[in-house]
Amino acid sequence: MRKKLIAGNWKMNGLKADAVALAKAVFEKMDSVSNRPFDVLVCPPMNVLGYVVDVPHSSVFVGAQNVAETVKPNGAFTGDVSATMVKDLGATWTLVGHSERRTYHHETDAVVRQKAENAINNGLTVVICIGETLEEREAGKALEVVTRQVRESTPAIANATNCVLAYEPVWAIGTGKVPTTADVAEMHAAIRAEVAKNLGAEVADGMRILYGGSVKPENAKELLSVDNVDGALIGGASLKADSFWAIAETQL
Fold first, then answer.
1. Catalytic residue among 57, 98, 117, 194
2. Distance, CA of 192 to CA of 182 (rounded, Å)
3. Integer Cα distance of 112 and 128 in angstroms
4. Which residues of the chain have pLDDT under 70?
5. Proportion of the chain in helix, strand, coil states, percent, rounded to 5
6. What is the pTM of this model?
7. DSSP per-residue string spanning 100-136
8. What is the pLDDT, as a whole number, of residue 172?
9. 151 contacts 143 by C-beta, under 8 angstroms
10. Is residue 106 flagged as an active site residue?
11. What's the pLDDT at 175?
12. What are the residues facing 211 on neighbouring strands?
């Protein structure tokens, strides 16, 4: 049985004091639940990643929001941070391919795949983000776009242990708009089928597929009960410990 994953993406938010305070509050709430039936991940921005890792915690994973495309652990790549560097800070996970990276930084599926492969090869667990735009959905191309992203963004070395997929319809991120549960179920089933086609049925059966896009305490329980939804990737609601906890608490 796939264990749910409740993941928080802090995006470009947080200076040292605020990030440490948020991490302390989140960690205390999560660590207070013994035998918690779900995993928890927080992904702070790079400027505070090391500080967050250093906040005492026993049962929450900490990850980066991105890693460099180059396979080199260091070199003349101004502004980039390699997977090796992320691991050196003590983080054990990373996001790659978030729609904001794909849109604003023009990251292709090939770039996302290389970043994911770099992360896995350096011992990080990777969350690969996928999702269609509003224009693509209205054109009837949502399934085509997302399954292509799954196929072309996921490296051949991915498996259910080192890789998680996160479906985030771009038009739902931060807008308050949420697809119907039927739409979510259809997309997640298609994603799992695509994984099975490319990596085999056993990998597909074990790989977690998260839903992301305006997940809030009010809708979390319903979204997380949808078939093939194995957790949530949460943006704005993860920036306050109480709202992040309220989402996680729906799984207790």
1. 98
2. 15
3. 8
4. none
5. 45, 15, 40
6. 0.97
7. HHHHHS---HHHHHHHHHHHHHTT-EEEEEE---HHH
8. 85
9. no
10. no
11. 82
12. 167, 232
Type of residue at 159: N
User: What is the rounded CA–CA span in Å between residue 90 and residue 79?
Assistant: 20
- E-state strands within the chain: 4-9, 38-43, 61-64, 93-96, 125-130, 163-167, 209-212, 231-234
Angle between helices 16-31 and 241-249 (to 10 degrees): 30
Query: Tokens 């994603």, residue?
Result: 191
Contact 235, 247 (CB under 8 A): no
Query: Active site includes 100?
Result: no
Q: What is the pLDDT of residue 171?
A: 87
Question: Choosing from 100, 117, 136, 168, which is the catalytic residue?
Answer: 168
Sign of CA dihedral 193, 68, 5, 123: positive
Domain 4-249 has CATH 3.30.1490.120: no
Q: How far apart (Å, rounded) are the C-alpha atoms in residues 67 and 69?
A: 7
Amino acid 117 reads E
